[in-house]
Amino acid sequence: MSDLSAFGFVMPHWFYWGWLAVMPLIMMALDRWLSQRGVEAIDKNAEANQKLQQIEAELKKSVDYSDASNGFTKAVDWISEKSGVFISFWTVNAVVFYFFEVVMRYLFNQPTIWVHEASFLLFGMQYLMAGAFALLHGAHVRVDVVYNFLPLRGRVGMDIFTSMFFFMFAIALMITSWTFLENSYSMDERTVETWGIQYWPVKGVMLLGSTLLFLAGLSKLLKDITIFIKLGREQHA
């Protein structure tokens, strides 16, 4: 990074990436510490979690996956859940960043050169990483004109059939992400803005997010197959 002293405080690249990696762990540990001591922590995601549960219940239409899980699917679902919680704390950073920008711009007449870029990179990575969590909770958008009129086994069968389109997308995304990461790292790709932060970590998050999405889809497919077979046996019992 070139000499940027004339622009006031400029967040170092290493601190930005390090903080995004460590900050959610600190927040999760703090929440756990408060919970263990009986302190009622403020759950800023309570309303969002309630809406997710409502969406999940509506989309799953009484499909019970509790008896369809195995060691692999439980591990993948745990990772999907924790990754979603992890990146949810990134939003706090964007709020702090833009607050800092407003103060510097309108009170000190010294706008920053890094806040906007840091925030849109953060939101892009958050979007990529949220796919597995959203799939786990049934929050992805689906065309349900026909789906809702099918019986329970029919809906599960529809999910199994359409999963091939999902895996085509997920595999293509993983391959493309790997190519992007490899090229970006080899050329030390950076943004064209004055801040000039590295792009390859973003491409790395893209690869990680697509991999988690693929695993979450595989977990759901295995559970759907188990449920489909179970419902078929119950119908013929």
TrEMBL record:
Segments forming domain Tripartite ATP-independent periplasmic transporters DctQ component: 95-225
Coiled-coil region: 38-65
Keyword line: Cell inner membrane, Cell membrane, Coiled coil, Membrane, Transmembrane, Transmembrane helix, Transport
One of the record's GO molecular function terms: transmembrane transporter activity
The organism's place on the tree of life at top rank: Bacteria
Entries under InterPro entries matching the protein: DctQ, TRAP_DctQ
Primary location: membrane
Compartments (UniProt record): Cell inner membrane
Pfam families xrefs: DctQ
Transmembrane domains' residue ranges: 14-34, 84-108, 120-139, 160-180, 200-222
Function: Part of the tripartite ATP-independent periplasmic (TRAP) transport system.
Oligomer status and interactors: The complex comprises the extracytoplasmic solute receptor protein and the two transmembrane proteins.
This protein's name: TRAP transporter small permease protein
